[in-house]
Amino acid sequence: MASFTTFSVSLSILISFFTNSFACTFTVTNNCPYTIWPGTLAGSGTPQLPITGFELESGQSITIPSVPGWSGRIWARTGCMFDHATGNGSCQTGDCGGRLECNGIGATPPASLFEITLGIGDGKDFYDVSIVYGYNLPLVAAPRGVRGGGCNATGCVEDINMGCPRELQVIGSDEGNQGGVVACKSACGAFGLDEYCCSGQFANPTTCRPSFYSGIFKRACPRAYNYAFDDGTSTFTCKSMEYAIIFCPNN
After folding, report:
1. Which residues contact 17 (CB under 8 A, 6 or more apart)?
2. How many CB atoms lie within 10 A of CB 78?
3. Where are the alpha helices (DSSP H) in 87-192?
4. Does the keyword Signal apply (predicted)?
5. What is the DSSP string of 167-196?
6. Residue 48, exposed/middle/buried by CB under 10 A (0-12, 13-18, 19+)?
7. DSSP letter for each residue of 202-228
8. Rg of the chain's alpha carbons, rounded to an integer?
């Protein structure tokens, strides 16, 4: 227990240092009525954030600093069990290699994703909430401390799991009250066909069109990415000092 406490204190000091050194931060909040385990993944050519995976109890928030030009993803894992001594474990949804700290490993689909590329200097940030690879939790991303205005919140506030077609459902175990439908696969993840994955002869916006399944996602969450070429209604720009990332916002 002592070593885990020391790690927590050291992590707090590191995050405080980065927060005071760089402008843009991500504030991750858990409004779900149960514990979640958010994960972060940096894009190619940018450093990992100072924390890449952590436990967040219901009602808790944490602020994570970033650096100019950072790009990557933030998501939440559910139904996790970890050994605090080793960091090894597993999650029902959004798992990243069976580790508490993801350390460069992305989410196992299906998972709701916040994606962003921060601008450098006066350059704009580009951000979205994606359910292209499926959905596990409601998620809203909202700019705060906006420079110049014109920014919008985006996300997916509906509980798609409630209306997920049977063939896309991921059923959880009853451990930790995480039974029932815990996630909803994308059609690509469920069937692996080029027409759903926008691959092969469908790897362009002319041939890859919205499907019956992506339409279900789009009607529930019109601002979220729901298939690979859904840029027009789902990518947003801003110049902000902070992004609030809220899981289960309706709670």
Report:
1. none
2. 23
3. 187-191
4. yes
5. GGEEEEPSGGG--EEEEE--HHHHH--HHH
6. middle
7. G-STTT----HHHHHHHHH-TTSB-ST
8. 18
